[in-house]
Structure formats: C-alpha cells, structure tokens
Design a protein that fits this description.
By secondary structure, the chain is mostly helical. It contains ten helices and no strands.
C-alpha cells in the first residue's frame, strides 16, 4: 500500500504542479479527494489480495459446508463467542486487513504531501509500519504489537482471552490514524 501511494503527492512538489493545481477552478481539494479515493481503492485491493491465498487454500483443503455455523465449533476458534458465525469471522478478517491497509495508504499519502519526496515518504512509512515486524523477526518478542500486525490476525486475536477488546482498540487506532492523515491531507490542500 505504501509503495502505491508514496509518490502521488510528491510528484506535484517536484514538478511544480502544486501551485498550478491550486489555481484551477476546482482547486487542489478535488485532486486530493481523488487521490484519497484511489488510495482507498488500492488499500481495498491490497487487503483482499492479502486474504485471497489463505482463503483459497483453506476452502480447497477443508471446504466451507456451513458458513452460518458458529466459529467456536472449530478447535482453533474455541474462544470466539458462540454468536459469531464462520462467515462473520471471515468478514471480520477481510475488514480488519482492509482497515490496516487503508491506514497505511492514507499515512503514506500524508508523508508524501508533507515531505515532498517519494523516497522519503516510503522510508518513513516503512519505518513506521514495517520496522516493528522486522525487529520481531530478529528476535525482539512482543514488538509486533506496535504495528498493525493484530489486524492482520483478527480471528486469532478474537479467539484469545480479551481479544475482542484488543481488536476494538487496534481498529480504533487504525481508524483514528486514517482520519488524522486524511484530515491533514485535505487541510493542507490549498498552499498558503
């Protein structure tokens, strides 16, 4: 997601198009809204693409004979509340991944707008979202919780004790971060 969005606003800075776009009748806000919509579409596609291989493998191997069956009927999800069906757990997984991808995409756009450099925006977004996961792979246990890692593993998180509250917390943080980055983008749309 970050790679797709890091250069969108930075190219305007480098080419001098920012002042020209601000002088058009629609202004720069329309362009920024279109970039946010494009970023949201890229995030949705990335979120779906992240789910697809796992779902194809699981459906081919196990099948899904009863999507309305309680998710707690599976041993791996025994801790999930009994009112959550398998289809609901599948939907939760897709929506949580899409929410994480949307946050990454919007923050990458904001970095691109602020820094005016595609490589600088990519570095900052990569450091913010990928560094905790790389450090966790290097042996620093527990640091992956400082990223959107839990949103990519929402069903497993929901199955654990207190997982529902953690899922709501991480979802709220992703929504707040997305809102703040989008607000910054739209607020900084007109050059002063």
């Amino acid at each position: 997601c970050a790679v797709c969005c890091c250069g969108l606003c930075a190219l305007e800075h480098k080419s001098g198009m920012r002042a020209l776009l601000a002088a058009t009748p629609l202004g720069r806000q329309t362009t920024l809204r279109a970039k946010l919509a494009g970023g949201a579409l890229a995030a949705a596609l990335a979120g779906l693409a992240a789910c697809l291989p796992r779902f194809i493998t699981a459906l081919r191997t196990y099948g899904l004979p009863a999507p309305g069956a309680p998710a707690c009927s599976l041993q791996a999800f025994a801790g999930v509340p009994p009112w959550v069906p398998l289809a609901g757990l599948l939907l939760l997984s897709v929506l949580a991944r899409m929410m994480a991808c949307l946050a990454v995409c919007t923050v990458a756009l904001a970095f691109s707008q602020k820094l005016g450099s595609a490589m600088g925006a990519l570095f900052c977004a990569g450091a913010l979202f990928c560094l905790p996961l790389l450090l966790a792979l290097s042996g620093l246990s527990g640091i992956q919780w400082f990223s959107f890692y839990p949103l990519f593993h929402a069903p497993a998180l929901l199955a654990g004790a207190g997982g529902g509250a953690l899922l709501v917390l991480y979802g709220g943080m992703a929504a707040l971060l997305t809102w703040a980055a989008a607000y910054y983008l739209l607020d900084s749309g007109e050059p002063s």
